[in-house]
Write a structure and sequence with these properties.
Blueprint: H1 2-15, E1 34-40, E2 43-55, E3 62-68, E4 71-72, H2 74-85, E5 89-92, H3 130-137, E6 141-142, H4 143-146, E7 154-156, H5 161-168, H6 187-197, H7 201-213, H8 217-234, H9 246-270, E8 279-285, H10 289-299, E9 302-316, H11 324-341
Parallel strand pairs: 3-8, 5-7, 5-8
Antiparallel strand pairs: 1-2, 2-3, 2-9, 4-6
């Protein structure tokens, strides 16, 4: 069971796209972007916040930090799509912006670096992402399949795989590799990409285990309940897991902080053109939101004004034949595992 939970927590990290950065001892931590809800005695829900920010001391459009889970129920993404379609501009997450099929370019703004040809994954499970496999096994849908990004108000606000590699191996100012020679790469980041696209042995093993979950309805429900309890208890914050290896800490720092600062730069550009009565939504995984909120309040001088909570997915324990004692055992295991990892 310990190994199962470790596997699930690895999946959580993938689903929430990273972890939060350590909190300042001086600044009060932002309110959580995830919570567990119990609308009745049998139902357990994972809810995600859409948080509205308004200028603290100046005029300007509203900014929404629209946290998201990368797997969820169709109704969740219907509500998210309706919300995003109502915003003036949506800055969305999508690593490798140059090859993203729905990348909407700003008129007259050239790409920062030439587009790299997409690399086709190879391996037993190549072509099917870890998140898509997880969604199918849990009876849910994958965000990239459920959300229509082909909207005129959607702008990709992310950095490329090549930029991440350069940040991991010497910084963006590091000179590119000479012509005909492979560029430097980071083994930890390479391993993560291979797990995500299923092109490695570890990725294949992960996917095989995840696919097994979908073969048993009760196991499927228990896995969703485990995810709800773990993500709800962590509130999207993995910073308390102090045993993280240094190379993984560096990767997390790049995946969160560098990409978030890129979003802030894009926000500064959009704020010059979006009307005061307009709105901008930042559509990113919940793991980005703690650091993103700090940057929004300190660098752009915005303050939180309103929360809207949406249910990402839920478990009906009576329908799934999960007894109260089984649910409590799972909660205790999650709590114990989190305590061990911290």
């Amino acid at each position: 069971m310990r190994n199962l939970l470790l596997t699930l927590f690895a999946v959580i990290a993938i689903v929430t796209t990273g972890c939060r950065t350590p909190q300042s001892a001086v600044t009060a931590p932002p309110a959580p972007y995830t919570r567990i809800a119990n609308p009745d005695a049998n139902t357990v829900q994972l809810q995600i916040a859409l948080r509205k920010f308004v200028p603290a001391h100046h005029r300007g459009p509203a900014i929404w930090l629209a946290g998201t889970m990368h797997v969820g129920e169709p109704e969740y993404y219907h509500a998210v799509q309706k919300f995003l379609d109502g915003q003036t501009v949506v800055l969305f997450e999508g690593i490798n912006t140059e090859t993203h099929p729905r990348h909407v370019k700003r008129v007259g703004k050239p790409d920062a670096e030439p587009a790299a040809p997409p690399q086709e994954p190879s391996g037993t499970n190549a072509g099917t992402s870890m998140q898509a496999t997880l969604a199918k096994s849990l009876g849910l849908v994958f965000q990239l399949d459920a959300i229509d990004y082909d909207r005129t108000n959607f702008l990709n606000s992310d950095i490329s795989v090549q930029q991440i590699q350069r940040l991991m191996t010497g910084g963006l100012n590091a000179p590119p590799a000479p012509a005909g020679q492979p560029s430097k790469s980071n083994p930890t980041f390479d391993a993560l990409l291979q797990v995500m696209d299923g092109s490695s042995l570890l990725g294949s093993l992960f996917k095989a285990g995840i696919e097994l979950i979908g073969s048993n309805p009760k196991l499927q429900a228990l896995t969703k309940l485990t995810l709800i309890e773990a993500i709800g208890r962590l509130k999207g914050d993995f910073s308390g897991m102090r045993g993280m290896p240094p190379d993984l800490k560096q990767l997390v720092q790049v995946l969160i902080e560098a990409r978030n600062q890129n979003v802030i730069a894009d926000l500064q550009t959009e704020l010059k053109t979006v009307p005061r009565r307009g709105s901008i939504a930042v559509f990113y995984g919940t793991g980005h939101m703690d650091d993103m909120e700090r940057r929004l309040t300190t660098q752009l001088h915005y303050r939180p004004a309103e929360d809207v909570w949406l249910t990402a997915f839920s478990v009906d324990m009576k329908k799934a034949d999960i007894s109260p004692s089984e649910a409590q055992v799972m909660r205790n295991l999650v709590k114990w595992q989190l305590d061990q990892m911290q």
